[in-house]
From TrEMBL:
Gene Ontology terms for molecular function: phosphoric diester hydrolase activity
GP-PDE domain ranges (all copies): 16-273
UniProt xrefs under PROSITE patterns: GP_PDE (PS51704)
Protein name: Glycerophosphodiester phosphodiesterase family protein
Alphabetized InterPro entries for the sequence: DUF4996 (IPR032160), GP_PDE_dom (IPR030395), PLC-like_Pdiesterase_TIM-brl (IPR017946)
CDD domains: GDPD_AtGDE_like
Species the sequence originates in: Rouxiella sp. WC2420
A biological process term (GO) from this entry: lipid metabolic process
PANTHER family: GLYCEROPHOSPHODIESTER PHOSPHODIESTERASE, GLYCEROPHOSPHORYL DIESTER PHOSPHODIESTERASE
Length: 278
C-alpha cells in the first residue's frame, strides 16, 4: 500500500486504484472514522471524504450542509459551533430511513487525517472556496501533504483554472475535475499541460472521447479517475450494474483508459480486480 500520493497516482504504478466513496459506508456511517477503518481493512487505495466549516471555524468531515440526513440532530453545520455538532450521533450507513443511531460522532478533519496518516491516501472534496485556505493550512501544519489529494472543478472551455487550490509551491497534490467536451477532449488536454496534474477526475458523455485521448494522456502522464457511483455514473457505468456485469462496467472503463475508480462497492471491485490480475 502506498502512503505517498504522487507515487500512488503515477502512471509508473500499473495498478487500477480503488477509491472508497465517503469510506466504506455500507459497513459504517459515511464520512466517519469507522468508515475510514473499513476502507483500510478491505484494501482501498484512497478514501474520498468531504469537509465543511462550523460556525466557530472548525473543519469537520461531512457531506451535507445539514446534519439531518446522517445524524440524530438537526441543523446547518455552518451556523452551529463544533461543540453542538459534536453532540450529534451518526446514523449507520448513509443515514437513510431505518438506519440505527450509532455512538459515533462527526469527526474533525484533523482527526481523520491523523488516523489515515501513513495508512491510506485521503482525497478531500472541499465544498466551498471559503474553506480552501483553512484546509491547506491544516494539511501543511500537520505535515501530511504527501498523504492527501485535493480536488476541484475546472472548465476546459473557458480555461478557468483554480491554480490557487494548492499552495504556491504546489506541495499539496491537486486533482482537477474536468468534463470532456465531445469531439475535442484530446485537444483540450493541451490546455492543462502546463498545470502538471498527475490525475484528472473525468465526467464524459461519450466513452469514445476518452479512448481517443489515450495517447495524449500517456504523453502528459495523467491518470484518469472515474466515478461509478449510482448517484453520478456516466452512461450507466454504475456500481449496481457492475454487481451483475462487472466486465461491462469496470472492465469497459479500464479498457477505455481509466486508472482509478471511485465506488460504493469497494470489496466487490477489489475482488474483481484481483481475479483479473489487476
Amino acid at each position: 500500500m502506498y502512503s505517498d500520493t504522487r507515487k500512488l497516482i503515477s502512471l509508473q504504478n500499473p495498478a487500477v486504484l480503488v477509491v472508497a466513496h465517503r469510506g466504506v459506508w455500507t459497513r459504517a456511517p459515511e464520512n466517519s472514522l469507522s468508515a475510514l477503518e473499513e476502507a483500510i481493512s478491505v484494501g482501498a487505495d484512497i478514501i474520498e471524504i468531504d469537509t465543511r466549516t462550523t460556525a466557530d471555524h472548525q473543519l469537520v468531515v461531512m457531506h451535507d450542509a445539514w446534519l439531518d440526513r446522517t445524524c440524530d440532530h438537526q441543523g446547518e453545520v455552518v451556523h452551529m459551533p463544533f461543540s453542538e455538532v459534536r453532540r450529534a450521533r451518526l446514523r449507520g450507513s448513509d443515514g437513510r430511513a431505518g438506519m440505527v443511531v450509532t455512538e459515533e460522532r462527526v469527526p474533525l478533519l484533523e482527526e481523520l487525517l491523523e488516523e489515515a496518516r501513513g495508512r491510506i491516501i485521503v482525497n478531500i472534496d472541499i465544498k466551498f472556496e471559503r474553506d480552501r485556505q483553512r484546509v491547506m493550512d491544516l494539511i501543511l501544519d500537520m505535515n501530511i501533504a504527501d498523504g492527501v489529494l485535493l480536488k476541484s472543478k475546472i472548465d476546459l472551455a473557458t480555461q478557468t483554472f483554480p491554480l490557487d487550490m494548492t499552495d504556491s509551491q504546489r506541495r499539496i497534490p491537486f486533482m482537477p475535475i474536468v468534463t470532456a467536451n465531445s469531439g475535442s477532449f484530446a485537444e483540450d488536454l493541451r490546455k492543462i499541460e502546463d498545470f502538471g496534474a498527475q490525475i484528472v477526475e473525468l465526467n464524459f458523455s461519450d466513452l469514445a472521447d476518452v479512448t481517443a485521448a489515450k495517447e495524449q494522456l500517456r504523453r502528459l502522464g495523467i491518470r484518469l479517475w472515474v466515478n461509478t457511483l449510482d448517484e453520478s455514473h456516466p452512461l450507466d457505468y454504475c456500481d449496481s450494474r457492475a454487481h451483475q456485469h462487472p466486465g461491462d462496467v469496470w472492465g469497459t472503463v479500464i479498457e477505455a483508459g481509466f486508472g482509478a475508480i471511485q465506488t460504493d462497492s469497494v470489496s466487490q471491485l477489489r475482488r474483481w480486480l484481483k481475479d483479473k490480475g489487476r
